[in-house]
Amino acid sequence: MPAARFIAAIDPGLTGAVAFLDPQALERVSVFDMPVVGSEVDIASLARLLREHGPAFALVELVGPMPRDGSIQAFKFGAAYASAKATVSLTGICLHLATPAVWKKHFKIQGGPDGKEQARGLALRLFPASAASFARKKDHGRAEAALLARFALETGLM
Q1: I need a labelling partner for 135 at 20 to 30 A (CA). Which of 27, 30, 49, 118 fits?
Q2: Domain containing 19: what range?
Q3: pLDDT of residue 67
Q4: How many structural domains are present in the chain?
């Protein structure tokens, strides 16, 4: 296992992502789409990804269903969040949580669809060596995971 120097950050959900930030190389971030099998998080693949990178700790976005979510969507989202959180815990990595309101305020990002595009734009600027990872509009989950990792570093969680 590599030296525990990386920060892991997870934007939970089936369209979420996992990011690994090395504090010694801030111009780049490694991001991976949330591993999914069927309509669930692939826990084994997520655990393998975390073990391969050996982060010092992991920050998971503390989320809940939105009022506009239907019951099935809310259930799936909650299951994905719980899977991410449990996987981090079971791999023995120190777990931290941050609400969207807190980390987005830090970066002055709005909530909702406009905020997703703002997050992607900010990730493109903060991580120029990883710009290809945020090139598509649908890469907002990758961008949010990357920004969560940067938030952890900038606020002294690491």
Answers
A1: 49
A2: 7-154
A3: 66
A4: 1
